[in-house]
Amino acid sequence: MPNDPAQLFALVWSGWTATWPTQLLAVIWIVWLASWVVASFWSGRTQKQVMTRDARTYRIPIFAGAILFTPWIAQVLGEQPLWRFGNLGIYLLAGLTLAGISFTWWARIHLGRFWSNAITRKEDHRVVDTGPYGLVRHPIYTGLIAGMLATGIAVGTVTAMLGAVLISLGMWQKARLEEGFLMAELGAEAYGRYRRRVPMLVPFLPGG
Fold it and tell me: 2-61 pLDDT, tens per residue?
């Protein structure tokens, strides 16, 4: 481990996070993550949440994917991108990434104090079916999956793309687990009607 702060910074800010325009992708995700952590303090009181052992089904692939997604893994393995986009291609994919995480923020603001990072039931929780929740039942996961896949394609390394796929798989698994939890907590009739009307993750598909 380097003792020189400059060397440490170079190690942390390396790989695709240190080269423009892929560096733009790192900036987008860092800003999103920082703002998301700050906003996590704005949330209602939790009444009930999914057991930790059940949460492992989605946390493990998300955690493994996040490790593979980092630029340091590709650097340690000496990976080279399978393809290289020109600046325009990277900017287009960065635009898709930004659109995805903007969708997560629209959903986060629309959900208000019902939001939680874990699968929980908040005080006075009810079915929210307006705004982005009228397009998909889990718009935060939809936006994250879209952003991750766009970033993985832009970076072009096997590990980045595999990481993006694992994170997406974890998000899909979390959505499935949340479905069962909300059906039980908010009522099979109310949430069931919502499920039949609105798709889970991909807009404009049939509900179910």
Answer: 555 555 445 556 678 878 899 999 999 999 999 998 887 776 555 455 555 778 889 999
In the numeric block, which tokens belong to residue 53? Answer: 């052992």
Please state, in angstroms and rounded to a whole number, the distance separating the CA atoms of residues 127 and 145: 23
* pLDDT tens per residue, range 60-112: 999 999 999 988 888 888 899 999 999 999 999 999 999 999 999 999 998 87
Are the CB atoms for 88 and 17 separated by under 8 Å?
no
Q: Where are the alpha helices (DSSP H) in 112-198?
A: 139-155, 158-186, 188-197
Q: At what angle do helices 139-155 and 52-69 cross, to 10 degrees?
A: 30
| Residue 157 region by backbone torsions, left for phi larger than 0, else alpha for psi between -120 and 50, else beta | beta
Given a contact cutoff of 8 angstroms between Cβ atoms, the answer to whether 46 and 115 are in contact is no
Q: Are 96 and 150 in contact (CB under 8 A)?
A: yes
* Nearest by Cα to 113 from 103, 128, 101: 128
The set of long-range contacts for 50-54, using a CB threshold of 8 Å and a minimum separation of 24, is 50/118, 50/119, 50/120, 50/177, 50/178, 50/181, 54/177
